[in-house]
Write a structure and sequence with these properties.
- It is a single chain.
- This protein has a single domain (about 5-205), classed as Maf protein, CATH 3.90.950.
- It is about 30% helix and about 20% strand.
- It has six helices and six strands; from the N terminus they run βαβαβαβββααα.
- The protein has helices spanning about 15-25, 50-65, 100-110, 175-180, 180-190, 195-205, and strands spanning about 5-10, 30, 70-75, 115-125, 130-145, 160.
- The chain has a six-stranded mixed sheet with strand order 2-1-3-4-5-6.
- The two termini are about 30 Å apart.
- Mean pLDDT is about 90; it is low at about 205-214.
């Protein structure tokens, strides 16, 4: 049994499974929205990954009375000035999906030799009393000419992390989860004691928020 459980503020089942696999060795269980009867939708219109992650975590923690972990993550391509960045999930516009996002990215990079990129993830953990803590992680790599692999999601089929020859979509989940931007952000949060701190705060009940902390 996990030492305590947190609620993942995402409707993406892939993210819930990934977070659960990464946090399990630390004794932290992860609940998805379906486990708690659903979560409110939060508008993600922040200018940075951190703003979006903090907003999601804080609003859903207040609404559910649970300790919540939220993340905002995306792909930054050097030759595109950091695009798609915070717009990664909606890069292809309204009605877009993973396939269309990838197709737009590859079209934007056509003829460009500099394929350097990085995945960035900001994790926000919030208690119901409004206390929010954040941590960040990244993984660097390159964008290849066309999709490869059936695993993962998002831009995984075209991203090859440094030190590897396979895309995130080709690598076994255990390997990806050991090097991904999400893993690195969650590991930073674990090392900083963020989960334990906010779980203790939640059990203690309402109190004076300690404020945000990087």
């Amino acid at each position: 049994m996990p030492a305590f459980q947190i609620l993942a503020a995402t409707g993406n089942a892939h993210k819930v499974r990934e977070m659960a696999a990464i946090l399990a060795p630390a004794g932290i269980g992860v609940l998805g929205p379906d486990d708690v009867g659903g979560i409110p939708e939060v508008v993600e219109d922040g200018a940075t990954f951190r703003e979006n992650a903090v907003r999601k975590a804080a609003e859903i923690a207040a609404a559910t009375g649970r300790v919540v972990v939220a993340d905002d993550s995306g792909l930054e391509v050097m030759a595109l000035g950091g695009a798609p960045g915070v717009y990664s999930a909606r890069y292809a516009g309204p009605g877009g999906n993973d396939g269309r996002n990838v197709a737009k990215l590859l079209a934007a990079l056509e003829g460009i030799r500099d394929r350097r990129a990085r995945f960035v993830c900001v994790i926000a953990v919030a208690a119901p009393n409004g206390d929010v803590r954040t941590a960040e992680g990244e993984v660097r790599g390159r964008i290849i000419a066309g999709p490869r692999g059936d695993g993962g999601f998002g831009y995984d089929p075209v991203f090859v992390p440094e030190g590897h020859t396979q895309t995130f979509a080709e690598l076994p989940p255990t390997v990806k989860n050991g090097i991904s931007h999400r893993r690195n952000a969650l590991a930073a949060a674990i090392e900083a004691g963020i989960f334990e701190c906010l779980a203790t705060t939640a059990r203690a009940g309402p109190g004076r928020p300690e404020g945000e902390q990087e």
